[in-house]
Amino acid sequence: MKPRFFLLLFFTYILICSCTTQASKDTQYELKLGRNIAAIILGKYKQSTDIPLIRYVNLVGQSVASSSGRKDIHFHFTVIESDRPNALACPGGYVFVTTGLLKLIKNEAELAGVLAHEIAHINQKHVFNKVYEAPQSSGNVFTQFLTAKNTSMSVAFSEISDQSITIIMNQGLDESDEFEADIAAVLYLQNTGYKGQAYLDLIARLPTQDTVHSKTHPNIDTRLQSIAAIFPESQLNDGELLVDRYENHATLR
Known about the structure:
It contains 13 helices and 3 strands, in the order ααβββααααααααααα. The protein has helices spanning 3-44, 51-68, 99-104, 108-123, 128-131, 141-146, 151-171, 175-192, 197-205, 212-216, 220-230, 233-236, 243-249, and strands spanning 76-80, 87-90, 94-98.
């Protein structure tokens, strides 16, 4: 082979390695931030002590994540005690569902739809991308935050976590991010064998007045219309609901 060809192969290899290394670092940063945010949420809300319920929610979540989730992270699903119907997604694969939302859900397909929506936010790094800037050098400020060992940097990292919490729990994401997660949720349901219509049925039943969900998500009618514009009715009605399985495993004690 000609020397120029070897040079081309060498530089291609270097480029691939450097991109992989950066992607790996980004994931490490995302995981550290996500763990910190998850800890903050568990400090604000009591985690359910219903182990069979948490196990069931995890099984449903993992079934969706195994077919549609990112492969560079592990997903974690748990239940927090709150009467307000809501679900939260943290960077790095942490998903929380409130007991209030579980009471509103009628079947396993609806639960899977909620978890699929949150998985989509994590897959697309919707929260992480709002607070993270890929480091250009080892001196990048955000890199220093995430490798913080001194007090000042730890405080700065805490502030970044608080900013993420504000996005997740109060401010909400961009409408385009929510619409993207809605479309992805239906696709993920179809990939896992659930009925996509179940997700629309649940959205239509969500409270619309003075709730955290209504303040952080687009208008429900607009969301339903955007999904219906993508998926024909016949496609949405394929799949399983699994009503009995949900009632048997998700009855709140």
